[in-house]
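[Q] Does anyone have a clean structure-token version of this?
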Amino acid sequence: MQVRRGAMDRGQADLGWLHSRHSFSFGQYYDPAHMGFGPLRVINDDQVQPGRGFGTHPHRDMEIMTVVLDGALAHRDSLGTGSIIEVGDVQLMSAGTGVQHSEYNASESEPVHFLQIWIEPNEQGLTPGYQQRRFDLDAAAGEWVLIASPEARESSLMLHQDVDVYRARPAAGTRQAYRLGGPDDAPARPRQAWVQVIGGSVRVNGEPLAAGDGLAISGEDELALESLADSDLLLFDMAA
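[A] Here you go.
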């Protein structure tokens, strides 16, 4: 089964300094039909104006991933971490028993565009932690790059949930298949997936998707991807 979440159907927040699109219920946007998918709880597509941002605020018992698409984001937290997250970087903060942090546009002249993703952990009360790593998507030549996984496989970030997060930039006209749960010789496991289109245009199992669209996939073992244009994609391969 496949359920498309169109870009223009997402929730919206416009605070002047912040423009955000919500794939799932978040903040003032509430839609009981879109509360998340599996352990995937939030996908916010945020654009923040120069010099502005989110002041210090708390989180707990959540895996919070930030993917910067354009510009740079300044991060500070109660763990003592201070960093600049730039294009190509992925940040993963495990809030665990509790953490406070702030996020601001690191530029006084250019906006910053990023995705913020929340995934419910497989255990509450974890020790808070912070990870950040740069991934070379250009060197992957359009193939899926593992950016987070429960075992930190292939130099990915450590995620406290049975979710493998991949990113790929396939070129127009390319086709590829992806088997949920791993290669053909891996033990079969019930899986489900969410595909989020960051940019471009693709077809996934026959479903056309454009920038900002998402697709929930369940009851299927394999994804057939056709790139209709140069594209940028996130894939969440998770336990069913």
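[Q] Thanks! Anything notable?
[A] The radius of gyration is 17 Å.
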